[in-house]
Write a structure and sequence with these properties.
Elements (H helix, E strand, L loop, with lengths): L1 H26 L1 H33 L1 E3 L1 H18 L12 H29 L5 E4 L15 H15 L5 E5 L6 H15 L4 E6 L6 H12 L9 H13 L4 E8 L5 H4 L11 E6 L2 H6 L4 E4 L5 H12 L10 H10 L4 H10 L6 H12 L9 H14 L4 H9 L9 E2 H10 L9 H17 L4 E3 L2 E6 L2 H10 L4 E3 L20 E3 L7 E2 L10 E3 L14 E2 L12 E3 L20 E3 L20 E3 L21 E3 L21 E3 L25 H5 L7 E6 L2 H14 L7 E7 L1 E2 L2 E2 L16 E5 L20 E5 L6 E3 L11 E5 L6 E3 L13 E5 L6 E4 H6 L6 E5 L6 E4 L6 E3 L5 E5 L11 E3 L5 E5 L9 E2 L9 E3 L2 H6 L5 H7 L3 E2 L16 E6 L8
Length: 991
């Protein structure tokens, strides 16, 4: 019984303890809940600290958390989930007894789990063992192929120098496809990682299919940064911005950009001097660099011939593979690759270890004829890459303009004005009111093509462009069904009749020796036909003839160029080309007969310049009501029916200089006109309201003044962007010999003047001085009686920048007496040739007071010249602060440049040739400043020089270049007793 009693007593005690425990859960429900929340808050604080530590080390040093840390974070997430699932008990104690009991028990369990995590979290906070090893080494993720040639090395160094420059933060590297941009940048990527100058160097390939979210993901992947896939662009950008902002500095290389990337939208902090970070990108398009506001743009260009040959030999298997028989063909094959590493590698690998001569010949033929389908890898690797650039051009019109360039021969310097005029005639540029407006649009098209590296400038000259050989091959491959291009091949025979297929849109046979065009090609879609020769010398090698019906089946022809061919006449079928917009017959010096142009109502451009054998202009000019550009210069006709101009209200450009027919005071009426025409030439021309460029020869001073006076009344000359007038210095057929005769009235807008072989002593004899104030350029030649430009202080020329005087037999100096204070204030260049009586050129007071902008003095062949600067000087020193070049040649009597000392701190080039009596140099040289000049002279003359300071000779001796100065050869004049007056851009006069 005792045992039973003890068992019952123990069971009751255990039961009572359990009941008490359950009651405690219920009674302490609220207290447990508060304890759980306090412990959770502490744990959450630990999680924030540990996560911050993880993120900082991950972003800065590429470290990743250990697995147990990941599990700790996972357990915390599970606790948070359990807490959220607890819910809340009912406020009425007895009604929700079991609910409160159950919740309180779970709360206590969570408290224990939380305290275990807290203890583990404390150990994480105090230890660095929470991290694994660093992220993958960046060098292992991107291979760096070798560079080919020293030019690529120089470009690499230039880019690296820009990256290291604290003032440059955004760099655009651009160039055509396959030129080696990515190869250079991978080398730079490798070097930057090795140098450890930047905390992180990141490479991201963008490509043409880029979108901002994808780019964000690529950057985040390299940063091991988590981005929400469902997040919006800006929230993802904020995460990246904060992650990159934790670094001291960074370099991000964006390779192969095809469209503008907004750094802000992606989340890349704007690189600048303060954060020391850089963003560098590669692209094929210069305009992307501009749009992304690069501070430095670096163009990657092809290899030199030597570098290309070296790479090509390497890829074909070495020089031993290339026999003496194959070598000349192999060199041509390498040249056809145009310096593109991608093309050289592709073609070289395709011909690797090939020893059969026929195979090499075939490869060369296929490259030259743009038939590259048979060269393994060529179409896919090279053309595929280049065609992507073509497809990426902004519009079909731009693409068509690009393809048009393929009509020119390989490596041809394409004249920009001519190319744009073709585009205009083909209506690839919409008519927008004026020729200049359309040409401006054409230049914008060219800029896009240049920026896309589809076409390139020639020697930084905006007048010419050129297509890279492979780019041209691409264009020809695209147009093979619509274009027939056999340009610059010196063909003797025309294409066969079956080659003139109906699908042809454009044909170029320019630069050939074809003398006979037979048959009647059936080309209803043909719009451009280029048959001109490239060199004017070709026109004397043989005459060109056409069958009578050659143009009969070309109803849509818009552009026809037959320039510089030996044609004597053209077939009557030309008269039926009613859709023709441009007819170009320049320098066809044998052409004696032109068919009627009466039906060519749509003609916009007619160029008949240089037709010296054509005695009469073609019939039907009065019907060309849409004509905008008319060139009848250097023609053989004796008269021009000037009233025909009134039938051309759209005329903007009218060129008729150097023709046998000159514009006289009274215009000549239409042939067979029944009424007398009393209009003066001035009254006729000022009615051409759209005229912007005008060039003409006037019969005499009366005819010229009648025009300028009329034009001045209507401000006609102010509307001309360009004019160039030539007039004989005569009045009613008599040479002007006294001041009572009428002087030449200079147009107020004229800034250029040349006078040749006119008889006057000084310019005021034939001009009013006030008329000459606006001149910027003046050239006087062969005026035998001329002694001075001006005397009695009359010389002014306040705006003159270039003064050129030659073959003036009695010329004695710039001015006879004291000059005006404004005289020659802006003169930059002074050229004096063959003035045999000239003793002193520049009066001393003119030097001291006026010529402070002079940059260049060139004096040649003045036999009696004793000194450059005349007159006594009150000081022993004068200055020409901007003088850069001094050339003195063939001056046997010259003994002095200046009697004092001349300070010329800008002098770069000094050329002295055949001046035997010049024994002293007056220049005061600052011995402490670095010299950037060169001296061209004979060593014998140099040794005869007398020096006040022997150290000065030692200082200048290394600058001596003993070379003879090139002798000037003056052109023979074809225009006698003429004055040429113009309004032109100054850069056209700079020589």
């Amino acid at each position: 019984m005792e045992i039973v009693r003890e068992l019952l007593s123990g069971a009751c005690q255990t039961a009572w303890q359990q009941i008490c425990q359950q009651l405690n859960y219920i009674r302490e429900h609220d207290e447990n809940d508060q304890t759980m929340q306090r412990e959770l808050d502490f744990l959450r604080s630990q999680e924030k600290d540990i996560s911050a530590k993880l993120n900082a080390s991950n972003v800065r040093h590429g470290k990743r958390p250990r697995e147990e840390v990941k599990n700790w974070l996972k357990n915390l997430e599970e606790i948070e989930s359990d807490v959220n699932s607890l819910g809340y008990g009912d406020a009425h104690f007895w009604l929700k007894y079991f609910s409160r009991l159950k919740r309180s028990k779970k709360t206590v369990q969570i408290i224990h789990r939380v305290r275990d995590l807290q203890a583990k979290g404390n150990s994480f906070a105090q230890s660095e063992d929470i991290f694994m090893d660093s992220l993958h080494e960046p060098l292992s993720s991107l291979s760096a192929p070798p560079l080919h040639g020293s030019s690529a090395e120089r470009k690499k160094d230039e880019i690296l120098q820009c990256i290291m420059d604290p003032e440059v933060s955004k760099i655009g590297v651009y160039g055509m496809g396959g030129v080696g941009k990515t190869t250079i940048m991978t080398q730079i990527y490798k070097e930057l990682n090795e140098k450890k100058v930047f905390e992180i160097v990141m490479w991201v390939t963008v490509s043409s299919s880029f979108n901002e979210k994808e780019l964000q993901s690529k950057i985040a992947e390299q940063l091991h940064c988590e981005l929400s896939s469902s997040g919006d662009l800006m929230s993802r950008a904020q995460v990246l911005h904060e992650a990159l902002g934790r670094w001291r500095n960074f370099v991000i290389i964006l390779d192969d950009i095809w469209d503008v990337v907004s750094l802000q939208n992606v989340g890349i902090p704007e690189p600048n001097r303060s954060n020391g970070s850089k963003v560098v990108w590669t692209t094929r398009f210069m305009d992307i660099c501009n749009s992304m506001e690069s501070q430095k743009e670096i163009k990657i260009e092809g290899l030199t011939d030597e570098e290309a040959w070296s790479l090509f030999k390497e890829k074909v298997g070495g020089e031993d593979i290339i026999s003496l028989e194959i070598k000349p063909i192999a060199e041509q094959v390498a040249r056809e690759c145009g310096g593109l590493p991608l093309a050289l590698i592709t073609v070289g690998c395709a011909l690797r270890k090939e020893k059969q001569l026929p195979v090499w010949r075939n490869a060369l033929h296929e490259l030259k004829t743009s038939s590259t389908d048979q060269i393994k890898g060529m179409t896919k690797s090279v053309f595929g890459s280049l065609k992507f650039s073509y497809n990426w051009l902004s519009s079909d019109k731009i693409r068509t303009c690009f393809l048009y360039c393929a009509l020119y021969p390989e490596d041809y310097k394409i004249l920009v004005d001519e190319l744009i005029e073709y585009w205009m005639a083909e209506r690839l540029i919409d008519e927008e009111g004026s020729i200049q407006t359309e040409k401006d649009k054409g230049h914008a098209y060219l800029k896009e093509l240049k920026d896309a590296c589809m076409i390139e400038s020639v020697d930084d000259d905006d007048e010419y462009v050129r297509m890279h050989d492979l780019i041209r091959d691409l264009a020809i491959s695209i147009t093979k069904e619509q274009f027939m291009v056999k340009a610059g091949l010196q063909l003797k025979e025309p294409p066969k009749e079956e080659e003139w297929v109906e699908s042809l849109a454009r044909v170029s046979l320019m630069g050939n020796d074809i003398e006979e065009f037979k048959g009647q090609p059936n080309c209803p879609r043909l719009s451009t036909l280029l048959l001109h020769r490239q060199d004017i010398l070709f026109q004397i090698t043989g005459q060109v003839t056409f069958s009578d019906t050659f143009f009969k089946h070309m109803p849509n022809l818009r552009v026809l160029n037959l320039s510089q061919t030996g044609i004597e006449s053209l077939p009557g079928s030309l008269s039926d080309l009613m859709n023709l917009h441009a007819l170009i017959l320049t320098n066809c010096s044998y052409l004696m007969l032109l068919p009627s142009l009466a039906k060519l109502h749509k003609l916009r451009q007619l160029k008949l310049g240089g037709l010296s054998s054509l005695k009469e202009l073609p019939y039907g000019l009065e019907n060309l009501v849409k004509l905008r550009h008319l060139d009848i210069s250097k023609g053989g006709w004796g008269s021009f029916p000037s009233r025909v101009l009134l039938k051309m209200p759209c005329l903007e450009i009218f060129i008729m200089e150097s023709s046998r027919g000159r514009l006289s005071y009274r215009s000549k009426a239409f042939r067979n006109a029944n009424t007398e025409d009393n209009s003066t030439i001035g009254e006729i021309i000022i009615r051409l309201k759209k005229l912007t460029k005008f060039s003409a020869d006037f019969a005499d001073v009366l005819a010229f003044n009648s025009y300028t006076n009329k034009a001045r009344e209507s401000e006609h000359l102010r509307n001309l962007d360009y004019f160039l007038f030539t007039l004989s210095y005569k009045y009613e057929g008599h040479i002007v010999k006294n001041v009572s005769m009428e002087k030449v009235t200079l147009p107020a807008t004229a800034n250029s003047m040349e006078i040749r072989d006119c008889n006057f002593i000084q310019l005021s004899d034939i001009f009013h001085w006030d008329d000459l104030r606006q001149l910027i350029y003046c050239k006087l030649e062969g005026c035998k009686e001329m002694k001075w430009i001006g005397k009695n202080g009359e010389i002014v020329f306040p705006r003159l920048e270039i003064l050129h005087l030659q073959i003036l037999h009695r010329f004695e100096g710039l001015c006879k007496e004291k000059t005006h204070e404004e005289s020659l204030k802006n003169l930059r260049k002074l050229h004096i040739f063959w003035c045999p009586k000239l003793k002193y050129l520049i009066p001393n007071d003119l030097l001291v007071n006026n010529l402070q902008n002079l940059e260049e003095i060139i004096i040649r062949r003045c036999e009696e010249m004793e000194g450059i600067i005349s007159g006594k000087t009150s000081t022993t020193m004068a200055s020409l602060p901007k003088l850069k070049r001094l050339t003195l040649s063939d001056l046997p009597s010259l003994t002095s440049i200046y009697h004092g000392k001349l300070v010329c701190d800008s002098l770069c080039v000094m050329e002295i040739d055949d001046c035997p009596n010049l024994k002293e140099l007056p220049f005061l040289i600052n011995k402490e400043r670095p010299l950037g000049m060169r001296i061209v002279a004979s060593e014998k003359w140099w040794e005869r020089l007398e020096w006040e300071d022997a150290q000065l000779k030692e200082l200048l001796q290394p600058l001596l270049e003993p070379e003879a100065i090139r002798r000037i050869r003056l052109p023979k004049s074809q225009l006698k007793q003429t004055i040429k007056i113009g309004k032109v851009d100054l850069h056209e006069l700079d020589y």
